[in-house]
Amino acid sequence: MKTVTKEKVVEFGANLAQITIWVGVAYALVNPAILPFALPVFLSKEVLGTTVGALTGNKFGELVAKLTKVFQGKNQELDKIIKKALKNTFPALERNLLEHYNESNDESQSAISSLIAHYINIDFINFDITQQTNYELVKNFANSFEYLLATPFEDWKDKYIKESSLPENFEKVFVERFIVVFVDKLHDQLTNEDHKKAFVEYTLSLLELSIELNRKNQELLFQAHEILSTLKSNTDVLTGYTKDILNLNELLLQLIPSVSRQISDIRTEILSEINKQNQPDLLVPSIDTYKRDAYDFRYKAQYTTFLGRELEIDSLRKFALTNKADKNFYWWYLTGKGGSGKSRIAYELCIQLKLWDFYAGFIEKSLLENTQLWHKWMPVRNTFIVIDYANEKSDLIVELLKILESRQSLFKYSVRVLLIDRELTKEIIEKFSIEIEVENSSYTNDLSPIVLSDASDDILWGIIQEVHLKKEKNIAYEKKELLMYLYNIDNLKRPLFAFLAGVALVEGDDIRGWNKSELLGKLIVREENKVWNLNKVEKPIYEKHKTLLVIATLLRGVSNEFIAHLDSNNYVWFNPSIQIDNDIYNRISSSLLIGDKIHYLGLEPDILGEYFVIRHFSKMIEGSSNGKDNILALLSELWSHKPDNFVFMLSMLLQDFDDCTETNLLVYKILLNTKPINSLNLQSWIAWSIYRNFICNPLFLPKISISEKEKFFLEIQTSVGDLDMEGVCIWLSTITMNFTSYFGQQKETNKLIRYLEITHSYTLKYPHSQLIMAQYVNALRNGILDGLVNFKNDQINKYFNGLEVIIAAFSQNEYINYIYSLVLCDIIRQLSKSLNFIASHFELCNYALDKARGLCELYPENHNFHAQLNGIVCAIAVGYAKGGRYDRANQFREESASIKEKFISNYQIVYDNYLMNLDLARHGKNLLETESQLLVYYDSAEEVWEMFRKERDIALYFAKTNWEFVCCNDIFDGVRISDSNIQRMKKNLREIEKDFGNDWEFIRYIIAGESDFLQSNSSSQLS
Predict the structure, then answer these.
(1) CA-CA distances (angstroms) from residue 72 to 55, 63, 593, 1023?
(2) CA distance 12 to 6
(3) Which residue has the higher pLDDT, 582 or 206?
(4) How far, in Å, CA of 644 to CA of 683, rounded?
(5) Contact between 251 and 220 (Cβ < 8 Å)
(6) Exposed (0-12), middle (13-18) or buried (19+): which is 370, by Cβ within 10 Å?
(7) How far is Cα 561 from Cα 474, in angstroms, rounded to an integer?
(8) Is 249:228 a contact under the CB 8 Å cutoff?
(9) d(Cα 647, Cα 435) in Å, to the nearest integer?
């Protein structure tokens, strides 16, 4: 039986050394465009190079010399980075290999895991790199890899793995996978913001190695030329080879200048790429493991295996890999509740895509702000960009998407942008839909996001199992019982809470009867006792560090400069006499050295950090009579530093923990009432206005009554007073506009009018502010809708006339024009419900048509304007059908069909056209003369239903129509539907039953008068 010997492993270890290091160096230059130029130099010792003079006799050589001088005493960082890259390689390699083979053979799995385990436990680098030259450093990596792959066998002595226990061709696959994973991990380290010096050192290694190898190649080249010249003169000895020698000599003479030119071009290209600073940094975050017996709750720690989510990951994979209509750029939105695993899914997808030679990762907000970069950027690989917390960056994202859409025809590679946040709000949809470039580049036709569904029971159970397996403990409960306890804690079925519950169980807690706060509270107490080691750290010291952790969490990171500012103010709640100790802080979170500043990071994941804030503030209240005042003072200070981040974290906290009780409820109220101190700048007041807009929005925080929301609005009006703050008034007008919408829906007309007038007052103060005017236009729309519903013609006319005055003044504002088109459509749709619609409103219909058509001419490519025109056209078509004028109805139906054909990707247009066809069929059933006339409308609607049969609204209206045709055929005086078409409609009802057979609204139509349409589950519900 064959065995994998030490010599065998060393052999493919040498292959690894020759390939991996050179590819790793090339990747370390970040820009993959260098790779084709670097590989010929490094991949083979036989490759011919250029003369030393071609590299060193010009500015390129001077650059190397200068860099060498600047970085004397270099390589201090590289040892740590290389070891870290190797340390991170093997766990990922093990997962990769096991997934690749998908072995059911336990012996094979055990052999692979055993091999990897030995590599993990060895000392990776057996020589000190800090004293070597760059050339020696890179050259000696080969010896290092031989050592790496040989050492386990030296440790095992005569114990070899049986080759039969490993999968076929394992050595080849191992080498290939190792190369990919190691290069990826090394690239992550070198492109890390904290490792800039190492990046320059490694780049310098590449340049010096290029010179050294080319010097040696040049010497060999001239030696060959001299030997051949000598041989050419000895033709009496080598008569038979003279012709070949002469040909070879001529070839070399031609080759030398040719290679020189080639490498000269390569040198210019490399230098050009090095000097370019327009490639965005995309990060796949890695974890620096702190050596302590603690859990890491962040998604990037990959504490548990990525489980389930096959549908979502498959959809996102298709989004990344599939090109549509030869376009190179698309974006998509991923939404899901906090803790549902959105970031983990994106993280896992990035890892997969990087193995497929994608440039993939998360992007920082600072790069979004650098619009100059994006105007110049040219992707050099297929690129996948992830933007987390997208809603708070919506303005920056809109600008980015517009730039990428406008430049995508120049790209040679595909670019995908994945936006992540908890929900795609109405405001974001409106912001995206009004920008034609953004809408055109959406991966879905109607801007709909991919929504992360609730995790299945198997996923939740699998997570809990893994936590127990890692600690080698058994689960104390049966699956069904434990999941019931978990649902009591978190009925949203989020993976994060399954993980936290698993941790609690492993630590010996009884989670029966627990709620969310108890689970998080117990977890924080345990981690504090374990990590902070309270017996060795005095209470004032760890209390200051905990307060810093609260500040860093609320601001999503804070620098030591701001900490010095707090200390200088001698705040009691921050104890200025105690200095921050980074080692102590890093026990529960982490800090980074960026330049000369220390950045303290908050507690992750967000939900855990949010609860830590509430709990800490609760302890401050319980521990001191001044606790409430101290919290308010602390929060007031935070408004001056990173106010945008502060608003975001406060808003999430209020959403996630609106069920607080007792002391925590007091904290919740304090957070609602925090505001900046009067001396703060405009940016802080604008941020506070945005925060109050969130609190006052009737759609958010339902446990805060609408009367309380009104009080919050009055307080912000009082706080800003007569200050000239347009930025604040923009958000005040947003609040009042939202109130007009809410009170309109509640049919409280007096309050609607009151807030509409307040919105109007902001336009008088800032008449040229298009953003404030846009909110007023929305408020006018709400006033018109209220008048339509309540038949108040005076109110309709007043606000409509006011709207037209604004349209005339802001004729070039696309958003204001869009709201105007919505109003036109709203009016016609509402009026179309009357029986004598066309006769009573003929002139108004023509007026709305003319205006809507004019807007479509002004914005010919914007789907939204055409959607409103189509809504008007469809309403008029149905109005004519109700009046028996099918000749006129068909004219408008044809106009709608042409709009649909041009904008087939717009869901709203398709849906309105679908409803119109069904209404024409239903109204015409007792008016049309032949069945074929009726079926024209039915067929068109059926086609749409087949396209969107999973859409509930479409299926419901189609079910209702089929029911009317099947069951009510005899009660109409007009067209009688043939038996064959009745059977066709019955069949469609059966198909609808498959999709919605348990939905009560469908059951009444699905029955359709025939008992055989009922399934057992429907029958049981009916009984």
Answers:
(1) 21, 14, 22, 86
(2) 10
(3) 582
(4) 9
(5) no
(6) middle
(7) 48
(8) yes
(9) 26
Place of tokens 């941790």: 503
> Amino acid identity of 901?
E
Of 889, 897, 899, give the one whose Cα is nearest residue 868: 899
Closest CA to 547 of 594, 589, 607: 589
Q: What pLDDT, in 10s, does the model give residues 663-678?
A: 678 888 889 888 887 6
Q: How far apart are CA 778 and CA 976, in angstroms?
A: 47
Amino acid letter, residue 103? E
Cα separation, 559 vs 581, in Å, equals: 14
Taking the chain, what is the end-to-end CA distance rounded to the nearest angstrom?
70
Report the distance separating Cα 951 and Cα 953, nearest Å.
6
Residues 152 and 115: beta-carbon distance below 8 Å: yes
The span from the CA of 964 to the CA of 414, in Å, is 49
User: From start to end of 551-666, where are the E strands?
Assistant: 558-559, 591-594, 597-600
Q: Say yes or no to pLDDT of 868 above 90.
A: yes
Q: Which tokens belong to 228? A: 């051949």
**Cβ-based neighbours of 72, under 8 Å, separated by 6 or more:** none
Token readout for 738 is 């939202």
Distance CA 368, CA 647 (A): 19
Establish how many alpha carbons lie within 13 A of residue 431's alpha carbon, considering only the half-sphere containing its beta carbon: 18
Average pLDDT over residues 860-885: 90
> Are 412 and 389 a contacting pair, CB within 8 Å?
no
* 954/937 Cα distance (integer angstroms): 15
3 Cβ contact list (under 8 Å, min separation 6): 160, 161, 162, 163
> 383-387 and 415-421 as β-strands: parallel, antiparallel, unpaired?
parallel
Helices (H) and strands (E) in the chain, counts: 46, 8
* Dihedral class, residue 325 (left if φ above 0, else alpha if ψ from -120 to 50, else beta): left
Are 464 and 439 spatial neighbours (Cβ–Cβ below 8 Å)? no
Cα torsion 728, 729, 734, 740 to 10°: value is 140
Is residue 163 within 8 A of residue 4, CB to CB? The reply is yes
Distance CA 313, CA 336 (A): 14
Q: Is the omega angle on the peptide bond into residue 702 within 30 degrees of 0, that is, cis?
A: no
202, 21 Cβ separation under 8 angstroms: no
Strands 415-421 and 558-559: unpaired
1021: pLDDT strictly greater than 70: no
Nearest to 549 by CA among 563, 536, 533: 563
Residue 2 and residue 158 in contact, taking contact as beta carbons nearer than 8 Å: no
Q: C-alpha 139: how far from its chain's center? A: 41
Give start and end residues of each alpha helix (H) in 556-605. 560-568, 582-585
Alpha carbon distance 1023, 1016 (integer Å): 11
Q: How far apart are CA 295 and CA 468, in angstroms?
A: 12
Gap between the Cα atoms of 904 and 574, Å rounded: 61
Kindly give the interhelix angle for 979-996 and 931-947, rounded to the nearest 10 degrees: 20
Tell me if 743 sits within 8 A of 751, measured CB to CB: yes
CA dihedral (15, 17, 21, 23) in degrees, to 10, reads 0
Q: For residues 164 and 1, is the Cβ–Cβ distance under 8 A?
A: yes
User: Which two tokens mark 163?
Assistant: 């080759």
- Strongest mean pLDDT among 178-182, 431-435, 673-677: 673-677
Q: What is the mean pLDDT of residues 448-461?
A: 85
Rg (CA), the chain: 35
Q: Can you read off the two tokens belonging to residue 294?
A: 């603690």
Nearest of 411, 348, 402 to residue 377 by alpha carbon: 411
SS3 836: coil
User: pLDDT tens, 882-911?
Assistant: 888 888 999 999 999 999 988 887 888 999
What whole-number distance in Å separates Cα of residue 281 and Cα of residue 364?
8
Cα(258)–Cα(296) distance, rounded to whole angstroms? Answer: 57
